[in-house]
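Q: What structure does this chain adopt?
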Amino acid sequence: MNNLTLTSAQFSHLKKAVAGFCGVAALIIGSYHVHHGSTYSLANGFRWVSAALTVTTLLFWVFYTWIWRWAWIPKFVGQPVVRGVWIGYLSSNYGRHQGNAPLKKPIVFVMRQTYLTLSIQSFTDTQIGESKVEALLRNERTQAVRLAYVFELKNEYPGTRSLVNGAGDLEFLPLISELRGSYWTSTPTHGSLQLRRVSSDSDTVKRFEDAVKRWPIGPQWEIT
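A:
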């Protein structure tokens, strides 16, 4: 079950919009039936409201699954679109002594997103990560957007089944479709991430090898 990623303000606006649409739909349906010979009664009112709820639920499902991410709508509803496949590099202090160059590895993020939910999978050649909590945070003064998440890594060390927890804080740069920021783990290690979106289809990559096959490691993975 995915977590809701709406802010309290967005959720409040959403509830008001759904309630308002349902009320308008019930009035339209009731007016239509009265115009065609029906009478006002408790039973008829219940049927009209039930029909309005069905229409509202169907349209809302279409909205939060697809429509919300089209054209200018994400900006209007205040929900950035980060879904898709992202490739880039992580730099880490894992296994490094002070003064040594950081470990640098190719990494893939696969983000699945609806208007209500967001999930993140990460892949390297040795690790698979899954997000447990996610949030898209917008600074209303600067309009900067950050992706904050808590994740779990599997197979942190070759030959083991260790689970490692961590957190990430990435800035979303929509004009150039990039994510940049830092992460920390419980081992403890920390590092930075730089990612570029290469596809809006989040269903094409299931493993690290899938991404490398489609986007061979090279200059397109580098972000300056």
